């Protein structure tokens, strides 16, 4: 994934300013920064929800800057959202099945339709794939539950399941651990690592828990007021003076359990 000189404006507001970066296949790449830094705007440019004012996005060597979100999903770009986007009246199973619709050969999709012939066989294959995702994310006990009745942590896991069901080559995670308790965060971190290492998915993640980010990321990029101020290995980013100033305006950076002090970076 290549993001080249992306700028994004909303009227007189510049949300992103000339941001470039490259994510290697198989990498777990995190984007961090203070609130309002442009992190979600960047994911929206990659997923196609926003069209950048300037610059381009390339995936597997192909310029996808003008591609619609559904077309990006079809070529292997999945995502979750900061604010849950589940169908609250549908079951967990049906929510996850929605994530498979780009893989269906048929021109329609409905859980209420009885399939026959080749279509029936296709649906069985998709349901088997969905059950694998359900097992992986350990949500078997709520597979038939209505999504809107679940706890927040479980709904976040269902949203991840729906994105994973697409079988994406690259998955965009927008604050996957927001609002979770410590145990739920540890579980989610484990799932993300396994998706990257065992399922072979490239991951671009936004996350505010610096302890998690620094523990599991291969590389980290920092945005501040829409500009890239740092990029590199987690330890390098923590030691960066501009990063410390962006978060606290001090010489010590201490964010959600990850910290670095002046005598450690001299």
TrEMBL record:
Native source species: Xanthobacter tagetidis
**Superkingdom, taxonomy of origin:** Bacteria
PROSITE patterns under this entry? Answer: ABC_TRANSPORTER_2 (PS50893)
Q: Which UniProt keywords apply?
A: ATP-binding, Nucleotide-binding, Transport
GO cellular component, alphabetical, reads:
plasma membrane
Q: Which InterPro entries match?
A: AAA+_ATPase, ABC_AA/LPS_Transport, ABC_transporter-like_ATP-bd, BCA_ABC_TP_C, P-loop_NTPase
Pfam (any one): ABC_tran
Q: Name one GO molecular function term.
A: ATP hydrolysis activity
In the UniProt record, the signal sequence range is none
The protein in question is named ABC transporter ATP-binding protein
Q: Give residue ranges for domain ABC transporter.
A: 1-250
């Amino acid at each position: 994934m290549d993001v080249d000189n992306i700028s994004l404006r909303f009227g007189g507001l510049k949300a992103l300013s000339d941001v470039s970066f490259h994510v290697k296949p198989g990498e777990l790449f995190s984007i961090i920064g203070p609130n309002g830094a442009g992190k979600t705007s960047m994911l929206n440019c990659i997923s196609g929800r926003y069209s950048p004012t300037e610059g381009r996005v390339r995936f597997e060597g192909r310029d996808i800057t003008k591609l619609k979100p559904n077309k990006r999903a079809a070529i292997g770009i999945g995502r979750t959202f900061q604010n849950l986007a589940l169908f609250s009246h549908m079951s967990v199973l049906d929510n996850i099945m929605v994530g498979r619709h780009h893989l269906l050969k048929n021109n329609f999709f409905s859980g209420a339709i009885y399939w026959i012939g080749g279509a029936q066989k296709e649906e069985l294959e998709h349901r088997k794939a969905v059950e694998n995702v359900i097992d992986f994310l350990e949500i078997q006990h709520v597979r038939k539950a209505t999504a809107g009745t679940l706890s927040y942590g479980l709904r976040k896991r269902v949203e991840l399941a729906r994105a994973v069901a697409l079988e994406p080559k690259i998955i965009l995670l927008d604050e996957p651990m927001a609002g979770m308790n410590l145990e739920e965060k540890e579980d989610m971190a484990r799932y993300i690592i396994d998706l990257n290492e065992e399922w072979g998915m490239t991951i671009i993640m936004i996350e505010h828990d610096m302890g998690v980010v620094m523990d599991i990321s291969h590389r980290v990029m920092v945005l501040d007021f829409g500009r890239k101020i740092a990029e590199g290995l987690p330890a390098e980013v923590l030691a960066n003076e501009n990063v410390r100033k962006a978060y606290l305006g001090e010489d010590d950076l201490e964010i959600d359990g990850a910290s670095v002090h002046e005598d450690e970076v001299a």
